[in-house]
Amino acid sequence: MHLITFATIAEAEATLTTFQAKEVETNFYSSTLGNILITGMGPEKTHASVLRYIDKADHFINFGIAGALREDVNSTTFLHQISQVTDENTLECISLLATGFHLLTVDEPLYDTKKRDRFAQHHHLVDMEGYVIAKLAKSNKKRCSIYKIVSDFCNENTHEEIMKKLSIHSYTLAQEIKKIL
Question: What b/e readout covers 130-161, taking b as 16+ CB neighbours within 10 angstroms?
Answer without folding.
Answer: bbbbbbbbeeeebebbbbbbbbbbbeeebeeb
